[in-house]
Amino acid sequence: MTFLYFLTFIFKGGERMISLSWKEIEENFPYLQIRPCQKEAFSRILETPKSVHEIPFGEGKTAIGLTLALALFEKGFGPIYYVTPTKTEVEQIITKYPGEFQSIYGKNEYLCLFYQGKINADEAPCHLLDCPHKVDIETGIQKDPNVEPCEYYLRKSKLREDKITITTTAFFVIHALYQIKGFEKPQVLVIDEVHRIADIVRRIVHFRITDLSIKRIEKALKTIGEKEELEKIKSLKETLAEITLGKRISPPELLDEYEIEQILQKLLLINPQILKEAIKTAIRTGKIDPQKEEERKILKTIEDIIYRLNKWVRALYTALPAERRKPLSFVVAIPRKPSYEEKKKTKEKYGIEIYSWYVAPLIKKVILENIPWIICYSGTIGDPEKFKFETGIDFKVFKYSPSIPRENILIFMPNDTPELAYERKEPDALEKAFSMIQQGCLELLKNGHRSLILVVSEEERKKFFESFTDGFECLTYNERKSPKEVAQKFIQGKGDVLLGTAANYGEGLDLPGKIASAIFYLRPEFPRPDEPQVQFERKRFGEQTYWGLQRWRVNIKTQQAIKRHIRGPEDKGVSFLISQHFKRTVSFPEWERERVREKSFTESLKEAKEFLSS
């Protein structure tokens, strides 16, 4: 093909004409041959620079985005960002294409040299320290050139260099949202796994204010003699205790408007600038020693309140109704039952959690604003209207059929497995499901096929692991071994079965080849009816919109989970959807429906073994 596409963008300095030919696409494509699906995607992206693309699993989405980034870079476009949800995916791209791109992660991925590398940079009170290792982000000049430079700030200072930046979606969102010093909005943005952006933003704008953090601030202010701000902090603590200690633990109870306003008023009285100057003076005069462990923690807590205070205030404002909008956030009281994922014992007794939940306006109006070229893609977009409602991204959505053979996967929805929906579940249904999955794993293992088992809750995971019989080795995580560590062992060939929650292993885990030929997914991942986000969404959106959103989310999660073993044209796998609830909630693309089987579990196993052995 010799088509030439001419694209006009309007910038502050006027119009800019960009032309891209198929030859330029082919020269920057990392493989010898462009698949039909990829060729179609290139054509549509060149015609519609702001667009969303649902591209089937294993079709080479990454190659599409990187090719366009490289081609536009050669045309003088920049900055260019390619963002993807996990650090692992960033590392894979950097390893595969050395020298082409630069990468950067959040502070938690770098060691702090001020503390001799004993802690990560995100644990250090950087903004309060006179650190010789610091590098000016805008000039690249180090405070003290005679010592080793801070790797985090050094990398940030290089973001303006002539390279394409590959980073996590979270890093990009934080910098775009809070307009962090040194960050420049890109001219080209490629978003991989765009269906996850709303959840990523929610995690970023989720805040905790607890008695433990306030006590540390009190201790510091007493040490330096800052009495006026100390009284304000004490008043905030008293208000938090009065409001939250009377709340029930389970199910969690949302704060009402009056309670939110009370906390908001206390926060507005605190002057972060006075806190900052008082603490810096205390460090200079030796009243606080930042090298002491306990005092470092106190300084970090104070730094958090100085730099997060405005974020807390904005989040609380959005939890209140305004003249032209309903609340966008909700607030939950602590104490509550800590989740397994927190993996730490806490001494917190009371406080609040602020969940900025309806983030679509934030994504549309702040994060993605003023970027001329935005390429979004995922294997699971589903209903375009639900996607737009969830993410705020209202670009045209293109969908593609696979060029990978449709015969490389079978999806089984057995007709004799238990019903595990909360309102319909029969006694012993879970035990029966566990038994059938174990039987399936054993049968497939006889033919040399390993399996991934996905459950929804930590309680189910623990019960399942305890119920396993002899005959094969099941790997799962615990307080000593992280989900990532255990998954890596399984990928390296250890164990016969990998067991985990869909939250840990349902996305972002690639099991190509024969790492796991079979996937058993226990039940759809609906939240409990008493979860705080459910209470908020039902009230804000209404029952019809709420249930439509939930079914869309569950469908996306299911499609992601059952394709962990299909990452390329050479892969082959089977997936079992166990609960009968799946039949009422999951839909498949038209091209995939012929690969779905509904028969008995025994017949399903038989066909699965024949299919994998053929």
Task: Write up what this structure looks like.
The protein is an alpha/beta fold and about 625 residues long. Strands 5-6-4-7-11-3-12 form a 7-stranded parallel sheet. A 7-stranded parallel sheet has the order 15-16-14-17-18-13-19. A 3-stranded antiparallel sheet has the order 8-10-9, sandwiched between helices. The chain is globular.
A few lines on this structure:
With 614 residues, the chain is of the alpha/beta class.
Distance between the termini: 38 Å
Estimated share of beta-strand residues: 15-25%
* Category from helices, strands and their pairing: alpha/beta
Put simply, the count of helices is 22
Q: What is the CA-based Rg, rounded?
A: 26 Å
Major sheet summary line:
7 strands, parallel
Apparent shape: globular
Strands in their spatial order, largest beta sheet: 5-6-4-7-11-3-12
Residue-averaged pLDDT:
89
The counted number of beta strands is 19
Helical content stands at 40-55%
Uncertain stretches? 6-15, 339-344
What secondary-structure arrangement, pairings included, does this model have?
Blueprint: E1 4-11, E2 14-21, H1 22-28, H2 36-47, E3 50-54, H3 61-74, E4 80-84, H4 87-96, E5 101-104, H5 151-157, E6 164-168, H6 169-178, E7 188-192, H7 197-204, E8 206-210, H8 211-224, H9 227-244, H10 257-269, H11 272-284, H12 293-318, E9 329-334, E10 351-356, H13 360-367, E11 373-378, H14 384-391, E12 396-399, E13 409-412, H15 429-446, E14 451-455, H16 458-467, E15 474-475, H17 483-491, E16 497-501, H18 502-505, E17 518-521, H19 532-541, H20 543-561, E18 573-577, H21 582-585, E19 596-597, H22 601-613
Parallel strand pairs: 3-11, 3-12, 4-6, 4-7, 5-6, 7-11, 13-18, 13-19, 14-16, 14-17, 15-16, 17-18
Antiparallel strand pairs: 1-2, 8-10, 9-10
Helix pairs in contact: 1-3, 6-7, 8-9, 8-12, 9-10, 10-12, 11-12, 13-14, 15-22, 19-20
